[in-house]
Design goal:
heterotrimer, A alpha/beta (about 120), B mainly beta (about 180), C alpha+beta (about 725), B: about 180 residues, mainly beta, OB fold (Dihydrolipoamide Acetyltransferase, E2P), six-stranded mixed sheet, five-stranded mixed sheet, 3 helices, about 10% helix, C: about 725 residues, alpha+beta, Four Helix Bundle (Hemerythrin (Met), subunit A), Alpha-Beta Plaits, 5 domains, elongated
C-alpha cells in the first residue's frame, strides 16, 4: 500500500487529508509539525509526503530540506500545502527540494487528482 | 374473550399470568390491586416493578403517608402508602403487603414512585368504551385521582390517574 | 467519490477556538521585538484562515485575511507593534470568535460589529507604505477563459532536465495525470542515453513526444506540468497549426515576482516555453535565504486535557495518561475479582485469611479506581482563570486604573462541572476587585502605595476541597459603611454586635451595595447574593477578609467533586444520617459543666470561646431518639456559613465516602437534607444539610420567640448572636 506522511499543525486539515487519502486506499501517518514529521520519517519510509508550510517548531520548507538529506527520501515526492499562490512560495519550495505544491483551500477531489502526478 | 373468565382463571397474588391475553386489542391493559377490600387499577404501561414490602428510610418531617425512600437498583424511590393517603382501611405491613412501583413522565421529568397496597390482583384488558366516568363527589379518594370506573362482573374497579398520583408529594412541605 | 467535509468541521471549530485563545493571551503579553510570540499569533490566524477556506466559511476567511495581513507586516518587521494595533487585534479576535461561534451555533452573528472592525483593519493596513497587492489573492489557481469545450488534438513535446527526478517528480506519473484529461499516446526518445558505464542512475536522459486528444484548455494541460515547468522544455502545439511559437525567457535569478514567463495572449494557440539556463547554480544559493525560521520555539501543551466552550456539557477530552492509568487499575481489579471467585469456589473456613486479604485488595483496587475515575472529570482551573487576563486588561482601561493580574495555582484541578459553574461568580468577584477594590493611581500614590494595583487569583487544595482566593491590594472594605448600609436596610439593628467577618458577610445579603454600581460592569445585575447562592449550590462557601487601606481577600471553598462526599455516619434513634466531614469542627462527649440552659428550651455548649447552640436532631426531624438529653448524647459540632452549631446524636458510626444521590429526581427538596446515599447494606441514608438545619433551627426559635414575652432580651440577643445569618 502506498504510504503517505501527512504533516500539518491544524488538526482538522490533517484529519481531512488523512481521511481523503485513506478512502482512496492509501495508508497514512500523521505529524503535527515539521519536527514530528522528521521524527516519523526517520522511523519509516514513505511513498509521498504532504506537508503544510506554516507550522510551529519546524516549518514545511525546513522539513523538506531535512528530508532531502535522508537517503531514503532523496526522490520521494514532497508536496507543500500553501495558501500563497505567489511565485515566491513556489520558488522557495522548489529550492528546498519540494516536488510540487497544492494551494489552499483545496477540496478532497482536487487533492486526489493532484497527487496522481506523483504517486500511483 | 370474556373478562369474567379471565378474572376467575388468573391467579391473584404475587404472580400474574398474562397467558391467553390477546395483546393486540383496541383497548388498554390495567393492573388491578386491592386497598383493603376495594379494587383499584392503574395503566400497566406505567408499572415498572412489583416489590414486596421492605422498611424504607424515613424522610424527615414528611407526611405520615410518605413512608420514606428505598434503594431500587441504585435509584432512590419514595414510597407512598395509598391506604394511608386515601384513608382506606388499615395500613398493615405483612408478607403479602406489596409495593407497586410506577414510572411516569410528568412535564419534562420522569418520576418513579412506589405505592404500598394490600395485594396485587390481575391484569385487565379494557376497551376504552368500557370505562365509565367516576362519581364527582363522595368517596375517600379525591376526584382528581380518579380516571374512571370499570365494571368487572359484579365488582367495580376504580381506575386511578397515575399522573395525579405522581404529583402527590408536591403539596406538603410548605409548613 | 465525494467526501463529506462536514465531519471535520467540529474539529476545525475546536482548534479555531484554541487558536483564538492563544492569540488573545499572546497579544496581551506581547512585547516589542518578541518575534516568537508574534509569529505564533500569525500562525494561529493563518491556520484559522486556511481551515475556514477549506471548509467553505468565506466570511471567516475574508475577515481573518485582514488580521493575518496586519500580523504578517508586524512579524516581518515592516510595521512596528503599536498599542492601538494590539487593541485593534484584540477586538478583531473578538470578532473572529463571534464568527466562529455563529458557525458552531448555526446562528447569525453581529454583522455590523464585524464590518466596523474590518473597516478599521483596512484603514490601518492602508496607512502602511507597503504594497498590499501581493496579499489579496487567496483563490486557488483557476482556469483562464482560454478553455475550449470541444476536443482538440495536442502535440506535446516534453524534454525534461536531467535532474528532474531528483525533486521527486516522475514523468510517467505526470503522464498519468495528463491521461485524466483525455486520450494520450506517447513515444519516448532515448537519443540522449549515454553508454551504460557512463550513465548516472539518478539522472534522466529520456524525452517524450505525446499526443493528447482532449477538450481541456491549454492552461489545464500546462497545469499538469506546473511543478516541473522550470526543469523542462515543454512545447505545446495544437493541431491544425502551422508553426509552434517558441519564446525563450531569461531567468537570471529568483525574484519574488510573478510568473517568469511571457505568453502572447492574442494568438489562439500559443506555445510556451520556459527554460532554465543554469538553475542548479541559483538553486544552491537559494537555501541560505530560505532558512530563516527559528528552529526552537516554545511548544504548546501537548497531551493536556482540554475543555471547550465554557458551558459545554457535552464531552471531555482526557489525557491518554489518565486513560492508561484507568486501564491498569481495571486490570488489577479483574485480577482481584478472579482471585476471589476462585476462593469462593471451594471455600472453607481455613481460607478465611486469604479471603480477608482478598477483600482488602478489593478495597484498595476500588479506591484507586474511584480516584482515577474522579480525576477524569478533573480539569486544571486554568480553564476558568484564562478569561481573566483579558477581562482585567479591558476593565483597567475602562476604569482608567492600572491593574496587574497575578495568577497562581492554575494547575490546581477541580471537577469539570464545578468549574463551569464557578466561572460567573469568579468574574463578578474579580470585577468587584477592579471596580471597588483597587483605587485610582493618584489615590494609591497619595497613600504611599505602588501606582499599579495588584489582583491575585490563587487556587489550592485543602483537605477534601479546593480553595480559590481573590486578593486585591486595594482600599479594603469599609466596615462602617457596610454596617450602616445594613442598618439602613433593616438587616441588623443598632444593638447587634458583629465580628468583622460577620459584617463582611452582610455584603452577601440581597440588594446590598455600598458603592454606586457602574452599570455596565455589573451588567446582568448579578449581585453578591447571587454569587453566594451559586457557590452554596455547589456545596461550597465564601468568606471575606479585609483590612482598610490594605486590601481584601475573598476566599471560596468548594468541594472537589459534586458527586462524592466524605461523611461521618451518625445514629439518631434507629436512623442513620450522614454529616459532611468538611463541616465537622469537632465531635465530643459533652461535659456537664459546659452545658448551659437558657430560657428552658435553648441549650448552649461552651466550646472554648464560643457558645454553641445545641440542636437535637430528633426534635428537628420529629423522630424517636435513644437519648433525649444532651448529657447522655454525643455532640457533633459543625460549621456552616460562619456559624457553629452542635448536633445532638445518639452514636457516632463509621466515616466513609458516600455517593450523593439527589432526592429531587423522584421526590423533592427536603429541608435539612442535601441528598441521600446508599450504604453498604443497600439501605438509604440521608445526608444532612448543615446550612439548612441552621435555618430550620432558626425558624423554630423565631416561632417559639413569638410566644415569649419581650422581657427577655437576653434570648433575642443570644439567638441573634448565635444564629446569625
Amino acid at each position: 500500500m502506498t504510504k503517505v506522511l501527512v504533516v500539518d499543525d491544524s488538526n482538522s486539515i490533517r484529519d481531512m487529508v488523512s481521511f481523503t487519502l485513506k478512502s482512496a486506499g492509501f495508508e497514512t501517518v500523521e505529524a503535527r509539525d515539521g519536527q514530528d514529521g522528521l521524527n516519523k520519517a526517520h522511523t519509516s519510509t514513505f511513498d509521498l509526503v504532504i506537508s503544510d508550510v506554516n507550522m510551529p517548531i519546524m516549518d514545511g520548507i525546513t522539513l523538506c530540506q531535512e528530508l532531502r538529506k535522508l537517503s531514503n527520501f532523496k526522490f520521494t515526492p514532497i508536496l507543500m500545502l500553501t495558501t500563497e499562490s505567489s511565485g515566491d512560495m513556489k520558488m522557495r519550495g522548489k529550492a528546498a527540494g519540494a516536488t510540487g505544491w497544492l494551494v489552499k483551500p483545496f477540496n478532497p477531489e482536487k487533492l486526489l487528482a493532484t497527487i496522481k502526478r506523483v504517486v500511483r | 374473550m370474556d373478562i369474567q373468565t379471565l378474572v376467575d382463571e388468573v391467579p391473584v397474588e404475587g404472580e400474574y399470568s398474562l397467558e391467553g391475553i390477546d395483546f393486540i386489542t383496541s383497548g388498554e391493559q390495567y393492573l388491578t390491586f386491592l386497598l383493603s377490600e376495594e379494587q383499584y387499577a392503574v395503566d400497566i404501561l406505567c408499572v415498572e416493578e412489583i416489590r414486596s414490602w421492605e422498611s424504607p428510610t424515613r424522610i424527615p418531617n414528611s407526611p405520615s403517608y410518605i413512608k420514606g425512600v428505598i434503594n431500587m437498583r441504585g435509584i432512590i424511590v419514595p414510597i407512598v402508602d395509598l391506604r394511608m393517603k386515601f384513608n382506606i382501611g388499615e395500613a398493615s405491613y405483612c408478607e403479602t403487603t406489596v409495593v407497586i412501583v410506577l414510572t411516569v413522565e410528568t412535564e419534562d421529568k420522569t418520576r418513579t414512585i412506589g405505592f404500598v397496597v394490600d395485594a396485587v390482583s390481575d391484569v385487565l384488558n379494557v376497551e376504552n368504551n368500557e370505562i365509565k366516568p367516576a362519581p364527582a363527589f363522595g368517596g375517600c379518594v379525591p376526584p382528581n385521582y380518579l380516571a374512571g370506573l370499570i365494571n368487572v362482573g359484579e365488582n367495580v374497579v376504580t381506575l386511578l390517574n397515575v399522573k395525579a398520583l405522581q404529583a402527590v408529594e408536591k403539596h406538603q412541605l410548605s409548613q | 467519490m465525494s467526501i463529506d467535509l462536514t465531519q471535520f468541521i467540529p474539529s476545525f471549530l475546536e482548534e479555531s477556538f484554541e487558536g483564538l485563545e492563544l492569540m488573545e493571551s499572546s497579544l496581551l503579553n506581547l512585547e516589542q521585538g518578541d518575534d516568537e510570540t508574534i509569529n505564533s499569533i500569525f500562525r494561529a490566524a493563518h491556520s484559522i484562515k486556511g481551515g475556514a477556506g477549506t471548509f467553505g466559511f468565506q466570511n471567516v476567511t475574508e475577515f481573518t485575511h485582514l488580521v493575518e495581513t496586519l500580523l504578517d507586516e508586524m512579524r516581518d518587521g515592516r510595521r512596528k507593534i503599536a498599542q492601538e494595533d494590539v487593541e485593534l487585534l484584540l477586538g478583531s479576535v473578538d470578532c473572529m470568535r463571534l464568527l466562529i461561534e455563529a458557525i458552531r451555533d448555526e446562528t447569525e452573528c453581529d454583522e455590523d460589529k464585524i464590518a466596523v472592525n474590518a473597516a478599521l483593519l483596512e484603514k490601518t493596513l492602508a496607512t502602511s507604505n507597503n504594497d498590499i497587492t501581493e496579499a489579496t489573492s487567496t483563490t486557488p489557481i483557476e482556469e483562464t477563459p482560454e478553455s475550449t469545450s470541444d476536443t482538440a488534438s495536442w502535440q506535446i513535446e516534453f524534454i525534461p532536465d536531467h535532474h528532474l527526478v531528483q525533486t521527486g517528480n516522475d514523468p510517467l506519473l505526470l503522464f498519468n495525470a495528463l491521461a485524466d484529461l483525455g486520450d494520450i499516446t506517447l513515444v519516448a526518445n532515448a537519443k540522449e542515453l549515454p553508454a551504460l558505464n557512463e550513465m548516472d542512475a539518478e539522472e534522466l536522459y529520456l524525452s517524450w513526444l505525446l499526443t493528447l486528444k482532449s477538450s481541456a484548455s491549454e492552461d489545464e494541460i500546462k497545469e499538469v506540468f506546473e511543478w516541473v515547468e522550470d526543469e523542462c522544455l515543454l512545447i505545446l502545439t495544437k493541431e491544425e497549426q502551422s508553426e509552434p511559437e517558441i519564446t525563450t525567457v531569461d531567468e537570471p535569478e529568483i525574484t519574488p515576482a510573478d510568473e517568469p514567463e511571457i505568453t502572447p495572449a492574442d494568438k489562439p494557440s500559443s506555445a510556451q516555453v520556459t527554460e532554465q539556463p543554469d538553475k542548479s547554480e541559483t538553486l544552491v544559493t537559494e537555501p541560505e535565504k530560505v532558512i530563516s525560521k527559528p528552529q526552537s520555539s516554545a511548544s504548546s501543551a501537548t497531551e493536556k486535557t482540554t475543555a471547550k466552550a465554557k458551558n459545554d456539557l457535552g464531552s471531555i477530552r482526557v489525557g491518554v495518561d489518565k486513560v492508561d492509568s484507568l486501564i491498569n487499575l481495571v486490570g488489577e481489579l479483574v485480577i482481584t475479582q478472579s482471585m476471589l471467585t476462585e476462593l469462593g469456589n471451594d471455600f472453607d473456613l481455613s481460607k478465611i485469611e486469604r479471603l480477608n486479604s482478598g477483600l482488602e485488595q478489593l478495597l484498595q483496587n476500588t479506591k484507586e479506581l474511584q480516584e482515577s475515575v474522579m480525576r477524569i472529570r478533573m480539569l486544571p482551573i486554568s480553564f476558568a482563570f484564562n478569561r481573566f487576563p483579558r477581562l482585567v486588561h479591558d476593565l483597567a482601561i475602562k476604569t482608567g486604573k492600572e491593574v496587574e493580574l497575578v495568577l497562581n495555582g492554575e494547575q490546581t484541578e477541580l471537577d469539570k462541572t464545578v468549574m463551569e459553574q464557578i466561572g460567573d461568580p469568579l468574574v463578578h468577584l474579580v470585577r468587584n476587585a477592579v471596580d471597588h477594590g483597587i483605587e485610582s493611581a493618584e489615590v494609591r500614590l497619595a497613600n504611599g502605595k505602588p501606582q499599579k494595583g495588584t489582583i491575585m487569583l490563587d487556587a489550592y487544595h485543602q483537605g477534601g476541597s479546593i480553595v480559590i482566593e481573590i486578593k486585591d491590594d486595594g482600599g479594603g472594605i469599609n466596615r462602617e459603611a457596610v454596617f450602616n448600609k445594613a442598618l439602613e436596610k433593616g438587616i441588623v439593628d443598632e444593638n447587634t454586635t458583629l465580628s468583622d467577618s460577620q459584617v463582611f458577610d452582610l455584603l452577601f445579603e440581597p440588594g446590598f451595595s455600598t458603592a454606586t454600581e457602574v452599570s455596565d460592569i455589573s451588567g446582568r445585575g448579578v449581585g453578591m447574593d447571587v454569587v453566594k447562592k451559586n457557590i452554596q449550590s455547589l456545596g461550597g462557601r465564601i468568606q471575606v477578609e479585609s483590612e482598610q487601606g490594605k486590601g481584601s481577600t475573598f476566599r471560596v471553598n468548594l468541594p472537589l467533586t459534586l458527586a462524592i462526599l466524605d461523611g461521618q455516619l451518625v445514629r439518631v434513634g434507629s436512623e442513620t444520617y450522614i454529616i459532611p466531614l468538611i463541616t465537622i469542627v469537632e465531635s465530643l462527649q459533652p461535659q456537664k459543666e459546659l452545658i448551659n440552659r437558657v430560657s428552658g428550651d435553648m441549650v448552649l455548649y461552651r466550646l472554648r470561646e464560643d457558645n454553641v447552640p445545641v440542636i437535637p436532631i430528633y426534635q428537628l426531624f420529629n423522630i424517636p431518639s435513644e437519648f433525649e438529653n444532651i448529657e447522655s448524647s454525643l455532640l457533633v459540632v459543625v460549621e456552616a456559613e460562619g456559624q457553629k452549631i452542635g448536633l445532638m446524636v445518639d452514636d457516632l458510626l463509621a466515616q466513609q465516602q458516600v455517593v450523593i444521590k439527589s432526592l429531587n429526581d423522584n421526590y423533592q427538596q427536603v429541608e435539612g437534607v442535601s441528598g441521600a446515599t446508599i450504604l453498604g447494606d443497600g439501605s438509604v441514608a440521608m445526608i444532612l444539610d448543615i446550612a439548612g438545619i441552621i435555618n430550620m433551627a432558626l425558624t423554630k426559635a423565631q416561632n417559639n420567640q413569638r410566644y415569649k414575652s419581650i422581657n427577655q432580651p437576653q434570648v433575642g440577643q443570644l439567638v441573634s448572636e448565635g444564629v446569625n445569618l
